[in-house]
Amino acid sequence: MMSSYCRDAQREMPETNSRSRKTDPGKLSFLKDDIEKFDLQDLLTASAEVLGSGTFGSSYKAAVGGQPVVVKRYRHMNNVEREEFHEHMRRIGRLKHQNLLPLAAYYYRRDEKLLVTEFAENGSLASHLHGNHSLEEEGLDWHIRLKIVKGVARGLAFLYNQLPIIAPHGHLKSSNVLLDESFEPLLTDYALRPVINPEHAHMFMMAYKSPEYARLGRSSNKTDIWCFGILILEILTGKFPENYLTPGYNSDADLATWVNNMVKEKRTGEVFDKEMLGTKNSKGEMIKLLKIGLSCCEEEFERRLDIKEVIDKVEELKGDDDEDYYGSEGNAYSVRGSNQEGFSFSMDR
Predict the structure, then answer these.
(1) How many structural domains are present in the chain?
(2) Helix (H, G, I), strand (E, B) or coil at 268
(3) What is the number of other CB atoms lying within 10 angstroms of the CB of residue 302?
(4) Sorting pLDDT into bands at 50, 70 and 90, what band is 197?
(5) Which pTM does this prediction carry?
(6) 340 occurs within a structural domain
(7) b/e string for 172-210 if b means 16 or more Cβ within 10 A?
(8) Which residues are bridge partners to 103 per DSSP?
(9) What values do phi and psi take at 50, rounded to 5?
């Protein structure tokens, strides 16, 4: 695995002795006690499968000591001093929540870092929403999508509570939501903004693609709320947000703008993913979630929901409802940035 990386890493490893510190630069630093320990050489020489290459580096699935782990190589953290990096990794390692993918171990090298996590059985939310589906593997149904939204909301609320920083996740998007064997969502790549090189973060991280960063040159305490709103709309519509690809905020490429326009044109039923099954008795709840998503995506961040309001509204949603909650233009749901009623819905699945 990564043979060239292994050779380079070994060149930088100093000889160790009995006085070596816990954060010995030639060793992996483990943050989880319930994972079988292995050394850097085991990791770098293990057979591996490339999972993908993103804006921050490549990801690999490796089998080490009989357990599957995921290794991410980060090349854009080289502005961070060693002790600052160690301290931040330990801070992340102390975060424990059922909807966070725990950081198991890390390795510091001057121009590149390795972060190690356990393997999530069902891959990323993005692959389920945008991959090719077949009769054997259908798209996610409404109940699973709602479960994912609730889990992401809980994980995000935990980060807000535990980390006194603006945009505590900082890079929330569907490829950074993994799914375990029961489709419980696990947030990953969270809280890395403080250790990413600023010039790279400004180009690629979701926190810097928000409307307020484009307008004011700064993020807000509701920037992650905007990212969550885009994620909700992506889950409901099945559309890949161009927001993920554009450098900075572009209202013309904004998924929320498209949904908002469809709602204003009373074409709400057309926004929902046609591959989403199990919706027949859930139309009212789907519209409620669509409204929550749009409320999270207000361009003026002061008008967005705060994290407590998000949690309260999301937790109220049910998998099914028996009311014929749609089709009326008198519903108390308004489109983004407007008090005008705009929801109509007709869908039979």
Answers:
(1) 2
(2) helix
(3) 8
(4) very high
(5) 0.86
(6) no
(7) bbbbbbbbbeebbbbbbbbbbbbbbbeebbeebbbbbbb
(8) 117
(9) -75, 125
Residue 147 CA to residue 124 CA, distance in Å, equals 15
Residues 204 and 239 in one domain: yes
Which pair of structure tokens corresponds to residue 291? 């409204």
> Which of 89, 118, 147 is where one domain is finished?
118
> What is the distance between the terminal CA atoms of the chain, rounded to a whole angstrom?
46
- In this structure, what token pair is assigned to residue 81? 């001093």
Averaged pLDDT for residues 45-57: 84
Do 67 and 146 fall into the same domain? no
Does 289 map to a domain?
A: yes
Q: How far apart (Å, rounded) are the C-alpha atoms in residues 275 and 296?
A: 24
**Per-residue pLDDT, 134:** 60
Amino acid at 21: R
User: If you ran DSSP here, which 8-state letter would residue 17 be given?
Assistant: -
Query: The domain containing residue 271 runs over which residues?
Result: 125-316
Rounded distance, CA 167 to CA 186, Å? 18
Residue type at 84? Answer: E
In this structure, the answer to whether residues 98 and 167 fall within a common structural domain is no
% helix, strand, coil for the chain, step of 5:
40, 15, 45
Could you tell me which of 110, 26, 101, 124 has the C-alpha nearest to residue 75? 110
Tens digit of each residue's pLDDT (9 = 90 or more) over 272-326: 999 999 888 899 999 999 999 999 999 999 999 999 999 999 999 987 654 443 3
Alpha-carbon distance of 307 to 305, in angstroms, equals: 7
Nearest to 190 by CA among 81, 84, 290, 94: 94
Amino acid at the residue 53: S
Does any domain span residue 185?
A: yes
* Closest residue by Cα to residue 55 from 206, 183, 182: 206
Residues 6+ apart with CB under 8 A from 124: 174, 175, 176, 177, 178, 179
Q: Are 102 and 187 in contact (CB under 8 A)?
A: no
What residues form DSSP beta bridges with 109?
Answer: 112
Rg (CA), the chain: 21
